[in-house]
Amino acid sequence: MTKRRAVVIGGGHNGLICGAYLAKAGFKVTVFEARDAVGGAIARREFADGFFAPGLAHTTHVFQGVVDDLAIVTTASAEAAETIALDREGAHLTLTDNDVEGAGLPEADRTAYRDFVSEYASYADALTPLLTNAPPRLKNFDRRDGVTLAKIGWKLRFGLGGDPMREFLRVGGMNIYDILNEKFADERLKAAIALDAVMGHHMAPRTPATVLTYLQRRFARQKGVAVSVAALQDAAVRVGVEIRTNAKIDRVIVEDGKARGVVLASGETCDADIVASNADAKSTFLRLVGARALDGLFVHRISKTRTNGDVAKIHLALSAAPPFNGLSPDRLNARMVIAPTQQYVEHAFNASKYGAFTERPVLEIMTPSAIDTGYAPSGAHVLSVNAAYAPCALKGGWENDREAFLEAVLNVLDEYAPGLKRLVQSHEILTPVDIEAEYHMSGGHWHHGEMAIDQSFMMRPVHGAAQYQTPIEGLYLCGAAAHPGGDVTGLPGRNAAKRVIDTH
Amino acid sequence: MTDIDFKKILRHSPYYERLEPHSQTRNWMAWNGYKTPRVLDQLASEYFAIRSACSIMDLTPMEKYRITGPDAADYLNRLVTRDVSRLKPGRVTYVVWCNDEGDVIDDGTIFHLSEGVYRLCAQHHQLDWLMLSAIGFDVSIEKEADDVAALAVQGPTSFAVLSAAGVNSLDGLKPFGIQHTKCGGVDVTVSRTGFTGDLGYELWTAPENAHALWDAIFSVKERGLYDVKVIGLDALEMVRIEAGFLMPGWDFNTADTIVRAGRGRSPFELGLEWIVDLKKPYFTGKKALTQEKARRPERRLLKLVIEGNKSPANSFLFDRKNGRNIGAVMSTIWSPILKSNLAFADVRYKNGQPPAEIWAEIYYQKELQWNVSWARGRIEEKAFWSPERRTATPPAWTQ
Fold first, then answer.
1. How many helical (H) and strand (E) elements, i.e. helices and strands, does chain B have?
2. Digit-coded pLDDT (tens) for A439-475
3. For testing the chain B interface, which of A138, A297, A298 should be mutated: the one with the most B CBs within 10 Å?
4. CB of B356 within 8 Å of any CB in chain A?
5. What is the pLDDT of residues B362-386, one digit of tens each?
6. What percent of chain A has pLDDT over 90?
7. What is the number of other CB atoms lying within 10 angstroms of the CB of residue A279?
8. Rounded to an integer, what distance in angstroms lies between the CA atom of residue B97 and that of residue B80?
9. Cβ of B282 and A294 within 8 Å?
10. Euclidean distance between CA atoms B191 and B193, whole angstroms
């Protein structure tokens, strides 16, 4: 019997992982990548001569189970163990997974933080059956859905225990702002935690259900490990995945409601029994499949999913180490955040609600050159900055405002690291519009669509296309547009492959 | 599009000033925001004007949309269940459209007015559904209810009346055909369409031409040639049931108004399989309808002739006297021309088969005292009433 043929659209981490699982299960798999290298959002990019950025995403959290299944070689963690909440005057806080310290931090907050992280770690853990399985459907419920639902219920009730479960159910739909105010007094601490709940989403601390986004990010961190693109690629190639770069897909061939293969931009056709799309839902259905092969309301619902990104990526080539006030250069390997108060984050978000960027951005800063050599020439440094809020749908467009936003970011950085501006040798700014164009992600959204409660679980990306299957037979979603969404876990890729293997 | 005066609770159609003097009963109702006659004079005389002479009805309130653009034909073919890709300019066709689950949203007609220019007529407001179905198509959709004055001229002498009113060369116009012509000195588009199941025409013109057109038609009556009578919606309700035409929202729940699961009805369930083409390119609901087609029928909307002379309005239906409940009557009339009770009934099937017997439990009053009786229903496959003159081309001058 000839091998069944599977085509994966998009060679990002989920595409490679999905392809590897399918190849292991006996499919003949080709992964098509539009760019010149695989890795998508986690691929390293050279933005100036001799200066490299780690890619769009600062960190990867590939689920341990995926790493084990595919024997992915993990590298020494590129993820910083510490987060430094920067203070303008140098009174920084240092947060780790189990402790926090810093000048002027009330002792009560320190104790509360230890309790908080262990409490929320258990909540994130309780989400495991929900986030690692195909989400149970509400309609056309089958046996697999029943098993998953039972696992979720069991884990919540008996994994957490009675009182924690009640508390979990209380906070699950709340905003992070209220929770943090319940627990802490120190603004620096609250804002540093809140940033993890909202960065990358069209959300601010007071947005409903930001506890859930926080927990999903925690879950990724707790259950994931850092992997390199090279390791992912090796793992895929090792099991027989064929990888083709510079191979943009023009459309999915649909005949009689079934996916039959893909047509490349070059005009080349590739037949397949299975097509797994690592592209976001809008790209997949509206562009690659096309409205004409789909039901009207389904197309409408896909077109109305919220996919507008709010974060710009800024890469700075510095001639020397960034001079952050009160921070010794040996601590540059930490992840740094600029979010002095929750109110500051909320105000920064206000602008984006009305189509403007903020003059006082919230920043997440990494200095990859302080972690590893090879990112910058000796003595020089690279600053990789996620800057929010920079709305995709900026009034008047980004064409004339890119530099203005960059200036706003540099101004804030310069307040925390006086003289930094003068060290900038060259720079790159990727607004959500640029991210969309370069990474083929609708709206330039990190997670291929808001991970809001109405676009999550059995409603991700919309009901009728959850569980990785789509209205087109043989077409699957294997990227962050599918459950459990973004955060570079590789779980959508794995779950989609499992669904294909179960179904075919 | 004309401005809407929201202070006026019900709008007046361009024909209102001509129509209003005919209303003896002042029995008005709202239809799509327009003041519309239910009955103008006597229901019986209006009914018989349709069946025996020539009736006039103001159709302006009907939902009308103009659909144009390079993808108009593809758009309509993706919208409706019937293959309309080969609908030629100058032709009209009856269609239904469904939601993703294959439940009917509404029915209507598509007019291919001229190359690439279409008009979709619908029972209910459809603009939102039409707009959201347009994603991915280069098409323009305009609501044109207020921009087109529409008049139905229906009945055995309708051809004669229009010819006498000066409409030339109608004799070659076949059923579902469109002709652009003149009448009363103004441009008018005539289609051989209608909701009566009889010989009849629908006349479409610009609002400013409405009076000239109306006057030209009524001049036929004033000259003593043929009677022309204005009718209201109650008479139309009688003849449409005789003709076997559905009324979405009454005979079945339209898909966009349903709250409870299972209350939607597919074209198959409404007996409209003949306008579902599962072989044409993808259309909204095709997947669901393909799956339904593979299953045994669970229910059908049936046309029933119910014996006796007692009205089976709102009756439950049973598989025998005092038997199992199998459905209910949706709409019914006593047909003066057929002398029997006609009904649309939602009937559950057993093992994919229609019930061997259908009995209506009829409650009726005699001098204010309630009684119950049973009447047998017989399934009618075709239209209850379909005279030869409906399709005869050329039509006779008098019938």
1. 8, 19
2. 999 999 999 999 998 998 889 999 888 889 999 999 9
3. A297
4. no
5. 999 999 999 999 999 999 999 999 9
6. 81
7. 25
8. 4
9. yes
10. 5
Decide if B282 and A464 are in contact by the 8 Å CB cutoff.
no
Q: Burial of A13 by CB count in 10 Å (0-12 exposed, 13-18 middle, 19+ buried)?
A: buried
Quote the mean pLDDT of chain B: 95
Q: Does residue B399 register a pLDDT over 60?
A: no
pTM: 0.93
Q: Does an H or E element contain B212, and which? A: helix B210-222
Residue type at B231 in one-letter notation: I
Q: Is pLDDT above 90 for A401?
A: yes
CB contact at 8 A, B281 and B78: yes
- The token pair at B350 is 């057993």
Judged by CB atoms closer than 8 Å, whether chains meet at A299 and B137 is answered as no
Question: Which residues of chain A are within 8 Å of residue B79 when distances are taken between CB atoms?
Answer: 296
Residue A79, pLDDT above cutoff 60: no
Q: Quick check: B135 and A464 CB within 8 A? A: no
| Chain B nearest C-alpha distance from A291 (Å) | 5
Buried b vs exposed e over B352-386: b needs ≥16 C-beta within 10 Å? eebbeebbbbbebeeeeeeeeeebebeeeeeebbe
- Which residue is it, tokens 């239904």? B96
Residue B159 and residue A392: Cα distance in Å, rounded? 62
Mean pLDDT, residues B108-117: 97
Q: How far is CA A464 from the centre of its chain?
A: 23
pLDDT tens-digit profile of A14-32? Answer: 999 999 999 999 999 999 9
At B42 the pLDDT is 96
Of A257, A292, A297, the CB nearest to B136: A292
Give the minimum alpha-carbon distance from A302 to chain B in angstroms, rounded to a whole number.
10
At residue A472, what is the residue type?
Answer: I
Here the tokens at position A101 are 């310290």
Nearest to A292 among B78, B132, B285 (CB): B78
Element (H, E) at B154: strand B149-154
- Number of residues that make up chain B: 399
* The pLDDT of residue B1 is above 60: no
| CB crowding A74-91: b at 16 or more within 10 Å, else e | eeeebbbeebbbbbbeee
Written as one string, the DSSP assignment of A111-147 is HHHHHHHHHHHHHHHHTHHHHHSPPPPSSS--HHHHH
Q: Report CB contact under 8 Å: A290, B284.
A: no
Length of chain A: 504
Q: How far apart are CA A458 and CA A226, in angstroms?
A: 27
Q: Within A359-427, where are the H helices?
A: 368-371, 402-416, 420-423
Q: Which residues contact B11 (CB under 8 A, 6 or more apart)?
A: B4, B5, B33, B34, B35, B146
Separation of alpha carbons B110 and B81, rounded Å: 12
pLDDT band at A8 (very low <50, low <70, confident <90, very high): very high
Task: Give strand pairing partners of B153.
Answer: B56, B201
DSSP code for A473: B
Number of Cβ atoms within 10 Å of the Cβ of A422: 11
Residues of chain A with C-beta less than 8 angstroms from the C-beta of B100: 295-298, 464
Judge: B100–A293 Cβ closer than 8 Å, yes or no.
no
SS (H, E, C) A286-298: HHHHCHHHCCHHH
**Span B151-171, pLDDT tens digits:** 999 999 999 999 999 998 899
